[in-house]
Amino acid sequence: MRIVIAEDNVLLREGLVLLLTSDGHEVVAVAGSGPDVLPALLEHRPDAAVLDVRLPPGFRDEGLRAAVEARKRLPGLPVLVLSQYVEETYAAELLAGGAEGVGYLLKDRVSRVGEFLDALSRVAAGGTALDPEVVSQLMTSRHDPLQALTPREREVLGLMAQGLDNATIAATLVITERSVSKHIGAVFAKLGLPPSDSGHRRVLAVLAYLNS
């Protein structure tokens, strides 16, 4: 996989390069400031981009802005955004253009190598990878009709939004896949969403609702 990295912290940037190359990927470009990100993405057209939200010179939302603009110019570009904290507004803005091929992880997730690499692979394949903390804040920021969901249904919805399939959800919650399917049906009914096929479209529907 060809990857572009945008991160101003030298230690983290070099750590990402080492981690990804050791896993068999090719880092085709690195950027340390906001203005460098979009040109690198447009030039190399990578299979995926790993971007920090806040970059020099302003340390506000330079990485996010570059990601949003790059996805406009390169539709479907897989982007995995890293952030020090859960920044709900930034997460919602990134997802507003569609959640397919989008990830948003907290930086401490990078230290969990297996989780990070799995999330990157999922995003590169067109899936979704949202940090559980991001999912939690997106859900708690909405009060109606999420209050109609049972605690178990909320758990299932949260795991769906992380991009997990029915089998993984069942294993995580220690229930049967049949039970997961029933909970998903109840979630869509209570949220007023039409039935959705398995796969990423159901995740997109959930995220579209949470960010509407």
Protein architecture, described:
Helix content is 52%, strand content 14%. The protein contains ten helices and six strands; from the N terminus they run E-H-E-H-E-H-E-H-E-H-E-H-H-H-H-H. The chain has helices at residues 10-22, 34-44, 62-73, 88-96, 113-124, 132-140, 151-161, 166-173, 177-190, 200-210, and strands at residues 2-6, 26-31, 48-52, 79-83, 102-106, 128-130. The chain has a six-stranded parallel sheet with strand order 2-1-3-4-5-6, sandwiched between helices. Strand 4 (79-83), helix 4 (88-96) and strand 5 form a beta-alpha-beta unit. The longest helix is centred in the last third of the chain and has 14 residues, at 177-190. The two termini are 33 Å apart. The model has no long low-confidence stretch (mean pLDDT 83).
Helical content stands at: 40-55%
| Contiguous helical run count | 10
Low-pLDDT stretches = none
The Rg value, from CA coordinates, equals 17 Å
First and last CA, distance: 33 Å
Mean pLDDT: 83
Please state the overall shape, judged from the principal axes of the Cα atoms. Answer: globular
What can be said about the biggest beta sheet?
Answer: 6 strands, parallel
Widest β-sheet, arrangement of strands? 2-1-3-4-5-6
| β-strand number | 6
Judged by helices, strands and strand pairing, the structural class is: alpha/beta
Which series of helices and strands comes N to C? EHEHEHEHEHEHHHHH
Percent strand equals: 5-15%
